[in-house]
Known about the structure:
The protein is of the alpha+beta class. The chain has helices at residues 2-9, 16-26, 34-51, 81-87, 130-134, 146-154, 194-198, 209-216, 220-234, 270-275, and strands spanning 99-105, 108-113, 118-121, 124-126, 139-141, 155-158, 160-166, 177-180, 189-193, 202-208, 243-246, 259-262, 281-283.
Amino acid sequence: EETVKVRDEQEHDMPLLQAISIVFERHPELKLEGLYDQVLQWCVCRLEAWFAADADEISLKNWDQEHVLTGGHGLMVNGYYPVIEALAQGLDIRLNQRVTKINRQHNGVKVTTEDGTNYFADACIITVPLGVLKANIIKFEPELPPWKSSAIADLGVGIENKIAMHFDSVFWPNVEVLGITGPTPKACGYFLNLHKATGNPVLVYMAAGRFAQEVEKLSDKEAVDLVVSHLKKMLPDATEPTKFLVSRWGSDPNSLGSYSCDLVGKPADVCARFSAPVENLYFAGEAASAD
């Protein structure tokens, strides 16, 4: 409520973290101490995970403008593959076809893949991750108009990585999430307990923002060791995982990021411009959704 007041007073945008600092300067009584402050830092940590970016990168103007759908959260116990498989029925899907060029022509679209194969269609729906578009891996001929290219540039791409760990046995409480608090958001963290939903002894640690970028610089074993050290602060009897998987969405050439976020000082219509078609090119996917 207090950061909204700061926003209403300001003509220009600022990072959400800066607004929080202004609030504490105005209202010293809102400052918390000890465990209460650490819980606040954990809430900021969770906020950063929502945007996959640190609080000093999140836009005060736009951070709470998202339209969140009603209802509770759900977990795909068998993963998303059954959904993909059902949606793919009857479609001609070509795998391992990385697109390098999209050419708008007077009578349609020509799409070229890295092996030189050309595909022709009346129109093209572009759903590649925003990070791929920002990296200019796909060449557009003719070039996209300035209003579209600026929308791609103005949208931010956050990173959130998962470190999934399989253990011999369950040594943690039967809760959905295990959270660790700390003096700063970076010192906080949380684990998803997949045992509660699937019966498998698996915990998944979630790392977002700059911390997720740091995780990508580590080897899988180093990343797991770091996360297990967090786990042992909560549960001293924690054992070492027998198997693990570490995602690297920021450096994966097919994603170059996890999902979009609103950057500080960017126009409010950036999502609408990104979603708008360019003649017979249609843009869809996560970054095109205002919800």
